[in-house]
């Protein structure tokens, strides 16, 4: 169908979103941040006072939930929520709600729909292994937990949030654990994904590696 689908997966803080954004710009295709979608659900559950075990309320909420990306902004039910979903509290809520089957079912359906209509680069945990098993290109980015925590800590401090490195590291480790041990679509490298260890590499290094791989095999 002439559409290009690129999957970028890996654990929290491996640099997926920054790199996927850069690759999207170079290739002039759309970037879709699936983590932001799980965050938006975590945010809306908090706002509506719905906990993970209230499955009936949650199902009703999901039925009336609309998530889209417009010009790089994430739109939840018509409102831009870019900043509201980037807090440590929402990170935790996203990680917890992403294990719920009803949430995954809803978001994976939206993601597949987005990839059917246009060429995309999508980042997350289960894109190459579950959302688009037939993606033309699959990358799996890793880095040590310490390096990932360092990057995320720096980001949060730059945004003026006061958190300690130890808190961020602990949070990353807990999210890794939840992502890898959940029953439904756990974080896993697809067999045919190219693994890139980004420890010690710059954003530019990794972006160039990915672009080269695509150009050489496209
Ligand atoms: O990538 P980000 O940290 O923004 O993702 C937030 C949370 O959403 C992650 O901790 C992960 O548990 C969940 N997630 C997921 N599947 C995806 C993308 C994110 O379970 N495809």
Automatic annotation (TrEMBL):
Pfam families attached to this UniProt entry: Cytidylate_kin (PF02224)
Catalysed reactions, semicolon-separated: dCMP + ATP = dCDP + ADP; CMP + ATP = CDP + ADP
Enzyme class, spelled out: transferase
Keywords: ATP-binding, Cytoplasm, Kinase, Nucleotide-binding, Transferase
Enzyme Commission (EC) number: 2.7.4.25
Transmembrane helix listed as a keyword: no
NCBIfam families reported for this sequence: cmk
Designated name of the protein: Cytidylate kinase
Origin species: Lentihominibacter hominis
